[in-house]
Give the backbone structure.
Amino acid sequence: MKLQRYDTSYIKDYMETPEGYLTVNVPITRPGVFPYARKDGTVQMEAKLPDEIFSDRTIYSARSKPVTDGHPNEPVTIDNYQSYAKGMSHTDSRVEDFKLYISLTVTDKALIEKIHGGYNEISIGFLSDVVAESGTYNGDQYEFVQRNVEINHIAIVEKGRAGPEVAIRSDSDAWQIDEKGGNTEMVKIKIEGTEYEVDPAVKAHIDALTAKMKGDSADTLQGRLDALDVTLKAKDQEIATLKEQVLSADELDKQVEARVTLINTAQPLLGDSFDFTGKSEREIKEAVISTAKDEFKGDGKSDDYINAFFDATVEQVQSNGFSSTGPNIAYTRDAANNKQLEELKNKRLNMRS
């Protein structure tokens, strides 16, 4: 949606025609960054970039446009032209001195009399797309860019007045905009000990920038540093935890060696069909114990108990030269040997004297 904007400049001189009309040649806009007040009182900096206001589209849009007495409350069209038009711009719009110039003729007697009385500002009413786009132009930062600028009318205005939505004060170098309409009282601002009178919108913008700069106080900066310190300590702890979880080469070698030893010890008892993949040390030992005692259940038994039972089973099998060729083959079915196995197991567990 296009937004309505206004720019102003002064009528510095004019020529009176034989018919009593006034012809004026004026600059109507130039590139730059200018403050526009929002309804909430804040200010947004909008850029008029050369490639936009010096585009054919904008230059041609200034030609043959109605001259009005002040800004109407609506864009001027064929439907309301007779009500608002007090003259017409010419077809000589062009770029000079890095400004957009055009000449125009005022044909309304009442408006001509106002001009003679000092009613001598020209303000263009135009429509544009205001796009959120930040950047810097000629050292001035902006937050928005006016795109697709199309001039609708050229108004003769009383100093500082710019229509129903905004009021504009201007000189030959810059335009400042507020929202109240009518004349805008200038306010004072002190810069490096010297007071200046500026438009309230300009002061609001300067105050906003000052407040933003003051926002980064010593406490604020210290708070940010403390937050960074906490983050770094958390990262250090995370790194330390990860280091604890990573095995050294020697520790890994020991674990691999223990795993290989366990598998080599258990495989003769469990047979080639037993799958060691994914089995824990305890699961392998319980499987070996089960070859000697088919009703064995390891649920609720401690690791020490399982280790002792496993060692006793392996000792018994190795001492008798048994290997696994079937269920429970680790048992000798010899009462004496079974008794010996129990004695070894109990000795390991220190369950009996």
Q: What stands out?
A: The chain has three domains: 3-184, 222-246, 249-349.
